[in-house]
Every structure is written in C-alpha cells, then in structure tokens.
Amino acid sequence: MRVGILISGRGSNMAALADAVAEGRVPGAEVAVVLSDKAQAAGLERARERGIETLVVERRGRTREEHEREVADALRARGVELVCLAGYMRLLSPCFLEEFRGRVLNIHPSLLPAFPGLDAQRQAVEHGVRVSGCTVHFVDETLDGGPIIAQRVVPVLDSDTPETLSARILREEHEAYTEALALVCGGRCEVVGRRVRLKA
Ligand code: GRF
Q1: Could you report the per-residue pLDDT of 85-135, keeping only the tens digit for each?
Q2: Is 108 a catalytic residue?
Q3: Could you give the C-alpha distances from 10 to 13, 78, 123, 147, in angstroms and in order?
Q4: Which residue among 89, 112, 144, 170 is best mutated to probe the pocket of ligand 1, counting the most ligand atoms within 8 A of its Cβ?
Q5: Which of 173, 188, 138, 197 is nearest to 20 (CA)?
Q6: CB distance 12 to ligand 1 below 6 Å
Q7: Is pTM beyond 0.90 here?
C-alpha cells in the first residue's frame, strides 16, 4: 500500500508513521511522498532526513478545487493508494474525497465526537472534562466526523494547560496512528455505516 502523508506544520505524526513503516511495524505499507501546503513546514525537513520524497503544493490564491486537483494529481502520479492527513490544516472538498473515497485517514487530538475543529485540547481543558485523548478516523465530508478506527484515552489533570494536555495526547497520537495505519493496510477495517468493524 503506497501511502501519501499530507502535512502543514511540525510533522511529528508523519515522522512516527514513517518510522513505524521503516521499522516494519506496518506490514505492506510504503511511504511514497510527504506533501505540504506550506513551504516552511518543519515536517518537510524531517521527511527529507528520512529519505522520503517531499513536495510543496501551495494554494497561491487559487480556488480550493484547483489546489486540491494539483494535490490529487501529484498523489496519483506517485501511485498513492492511501492518504494520511497529519496536521494538514485544510478541509478536503468532495472532488478530492471522491477520488480517494474511503482511503483518507485523519488524526484529531480529542475523543471524537467531542471537541471537533480547531484547538481541541484547549476546548477540553476549558470544558473541564476528566479524560481526553485522540481519534484516528476515515475522512468524509463532515468536519472530524468520519468512521472511527482507533482512539486512545489520557487523563486531564487539574494542573493542565492546553500545552501540557497537548503533549500528553501527542504521545498517544503517534501510537494510535501507527495502530490504525496497520489495521487499514492489513485490510482489517470494514466500514459498516458509521462503524468500523475490525476483521480478525
Ligand atoms: C496533531 O495534534 C494532530 O492531532 C492535529 O494536528 C497536530 C499535528 O501535529 N491534527 P504534528 O504536525 O503531527 O506534530
């Protein structure tokens, strides 16, 4: 399974996935390209250090569809079969999702469906929940709303700030994303309505 990873920033989830693939922890997967919509994304350097092809496709005043067409063309040209969003700060439009239907994953730093959207860790702290975590899900047209593959739970402490909670969640994100990628690449996920059933 040729995997394309889309980033906009730091790229720690991308690095975790790439390292897991390189260490043979995701049988059948190969990272084909890391693509960023931001030229200055720190994750690009982390990808290059790992010997992975990198690509920058900026929006440059074009429509969302025009930008995504270029992204989709670049992924298709590299034989990408599965797209992992890893801190990619853009909503994908129906035309992109049509082409990669059921083959786009995302990670979100909360226990969805709680706290979708931006600043999920701050939302969790401000709401006063006692646990939070992360969710890996298939992407559909809804915001952070597609079928859930994997989740990890962390405690929220009285002393937490959005930053300390983010750091605790991030450690779990790297594990959860690797686990979810292995499930998908291993053909273990069957989507039934809203639910993902894991095949033995
Ligand atoms: C992560 O918290 C992820 O859940 C969210 O964006 C952040 C990306 O971090 N979607 P990184 O670029 O993977 O380090």
Answers
A1: 999 999 899 999 999 999 999 999 999 999 999 999 999 999 999 999 999
A2: yes
A3: 9, 23, 21, 26
A4: 170
A5: 173
A6: yes
A7: yes
